[in-house]
From TrEMBL:
Family matches, as Pfam families: DUF223 (PF02721), Rep_fac-A_C (PF08646)
GO molecular function: DNA binding; zinc ion binding
Alphabetical UniProt keywords: DNA-binding, Metal-binding, Zinc, Zinc-finger
Residue spans of biased composition, Basic and acidic residues class: 512-526
Lineage start: Eukaryota, Viridiplantae, Streptophyta, Embryophyta, Tracheophyta
Residues in Replication protein A 70 kDa DNA-binding subunit B/D first OB fold domain copies: 29-130
Family membership noted in the UniProt record: Belongs to the replication factor A protein 1 family.
Domain Replication factor A C-terminal: 326-439
Record protein name field: Replication factor A C-terminal domain-containing protein
InterPro entries from the UniProt entry: Euk_RPA1_DBD_C (IPR047192), NA-bd_OB-fold (IPR012340), Rep_factor-A_C (IPR013955), RFA1B/D_OB_1st (IPR003871)
Chain segments carrying region Disordered: 501-526
Length: 526
């Protein structure tokens, strides 16, 4: 949407004025919001936002799928089946603007919805398509979703497709899988918006080829993308997106107005410089199968406190108290997530050597975690706190100020972290630069897993010293697992792709739906 792209009020007013003029010139034509199945004599003026053809072997047969948009920004799904393809294929092109009349209207029965319209339209022999002035419909065709809003949603409709625009931070080497006897490929990206918020993105099959073909010729350049009609998915409160069969469209460093406007929000050095980081897909990460089978080594807190060896350690424990009630959040750099310092009316990030007009409020909650051997201080960062509390730090602070009149008042909401049992993956760093170095350590939480099924595995081990011989139901759920590191800012320990047989046509292809599961790990830039 326009406001998401930072378009000025003046430009917004111009667009609104033009939209009102268009509305006044509708004449015999209807708006898409008025279209229903009561009649077939509808006439509309629309732009083809998306057009793609499915092959003969697709479920439902060969056909062309369309997404159409009118002057009000309303969209509807369009369908041209094989018998009519020869009649309309040459008349309909993506980004073309047409007057269309005489078409069938039916319920939108697609599993994955390209629009929110209750109906879809189908072309048939009497349908008339005519080229018209392109100015009749606005050029902007995307409904960009804000990353920060996405990550704080309590409920996300994983069947409703959406658009995202972002800078690509990292890519993982492509993975090969055999799903239902058919070879499939996937590649993980980490996306970042202009405010420093991050989102995981999975590319499948042909989208990987498109991305890598571009990347091979532009390895020294930053990459900005629009992923049109992608599908959201959630695990453990963390939302990512994935391409959706043939429906999605990947626009890379294009000259579309929306992409140019988005890139302009970044400092010049970030637009013109900066290469993409490539991460190995199997880089010393625990797989879901390892975790579920009890193969991950659990360290007791008493042993953690004694050791001076740097590395990653898993702790099974309970949060028993909050230690920093006065400093539960901090103002951070929107690039590296580290704390910024006030400098007159701006903020300085020492790490990036940048002066910023504003910072982003993020969680930093120090808690006391206890197990059977002892207790110690752990720091929960933004991702873990978002998962537990369900709202961004900035939103919580505003709510506190509204309730109490004091933005610095400690929010009672944060007490929700107390009594949380979890598997904590902590990073042990030695303060070697200290002259009095004696193994002094800092415990930063990289990931906090609260899944009861997983906790049951390690609690059982602690009680009877056994593995998962008696937990066959858990063992079975770990049938397929692969390691995938997503980014320096966000790590996916694993994704397990299961199969769900689909009955619908259209966006749902011959393959079954891939359902993503896995443990989301957040490696904050601290």
């Amino acid at each position: 949407m326009c406001w998401m792209m930072g378009i000025s009020g003046e430009n917004m007013a111009k667009k609104l004025s033009r939209t009102l003029t268009i509305a006044g010139n509708q004449g015999m034509y209807s708006f898409l919001r008025e279209v229903d199945h009561i009649k077939t004599t509808w006439a509309v003026k629309v732009k083809v936002v998306r057009a793609y053809e499915l092959p003969p072997q697709a479920r439902g047969g060969q056909r062309m799928e369309l997404v159409l948009m009118d002057s009000q920004g309303e969209k509807i799904h369009g369908l041209i089946k094989r018998p009519q393809l020869g009649l309309f294929r040459s008349k309909i092109q993506e980004n073309g603007v047409y007057a269309i009349r005489e078409f069938l209207v039916m319920d939108n029965y697609y599993t994955y919805k390209a629009t929110t319209h209750a109906y879809l339209i189908e072309f048939y022999g009497k349908t008339v398509v005519k080229d018209i002035n392109p100015d009749v419909v606005p050029n902007s065709v995307f409904d960009f979703q804000q990353f920060e809003v996405l990550q704080t949603l309590r409920v996300v409709d994983d069947k409703q497709l959406m658009d995202v625009v972002a800078k690509v931070l990292t890519k993982v080497t492509p993975q090969n899988h055999v799903i239902n006897g058919k070879p499939e490929r996937l590649m993980e990206l980490t996306l970042e918006d202009a405010d420093g918020n991050r989102l995981g993105c999975t590319l499948w099959n042909n989208y990987i080829d498109q991305f890598l073909d571009y990347y091979e010729d532009h390895k020294e350049d930053p990459i900005f993308v629009i992923v049109q009609m992608c599908r959201p998915k959630r695990y453990k409160g963390i939302i990512s997106v994935t391409t959706c069969y043939d429906a999605s469209k990947l626009i890379i460093n294009g000259n579309t107005t929306e992409l140019v406007d988005f890139m302009a929000q970044f400092p010049a050095e970030e637009r013109d410089n900066g290469t993409l980081t490539t991460l190995a897909a199997n880089s010393q990460l625990e797989s879901r199968e390892d975790i579920l089978r009890g193969n991950v080594s659990i360290t007791m807190i008493a042993d953690l406190v004694k050791t001076t060896e740097e590395g990653m350690y898993w702790i099974l424990g309970d949060v028993v108290s909050i230690e920093n009630i006065r400093e539960w959040c901090y103002l951070s750099c929107n690039t590296c997530n580290k704390k910024v310092l006030p400098e007159e009316d701006r903020f300085l990030c020492v790490s990036c050597n940048l002066t910023l007009p504003e910072g982003i409020l993020r969680y930093k909650i120090t808690v006391c975690v206890m197990d059977d051997s002892g207790h110690s201080s752990f720091t929960l960062w933004d991702r873990e706190c978002l998962d537990i509390l369900g709202k961004a730090a900035a939103k919580l602070r505003k709510e506190v100020e509204k309730r109490t009149g004091d933005a610095n008042h400690f929010p009672e909401d944060i007490e929700a972290v107390i009594d949380q049992r979890g598997l904590f993956k902590v990073q042990l760093k030695s303060r070697a630069e200290s002259n009095s170095y004696k193994g002094s350590i800092s415990y930063g939480v990289i990931s906090m897993i609260t899944d009861q099924e997983v906790l049951k595995v390690y609690e059982t081990q602690r009680i009877n010293g056994k593995g998962l011989e008696e937990l066959s139901d858990v063992e079975k759920s770990a049938s397929t697992a692969d390691n995938m590191e997503c980014s320096t800012g966000q790590t996916k320990i694993v994704e397990v792709y299961e199969l769900e047989q689909e009955q619908e046509d259209g966006i749902t292809p011959t393959q079954s739906e891939r359902k993503s599961m896995g443990f989301e790990e957040d490696e904050n830039l601290k």
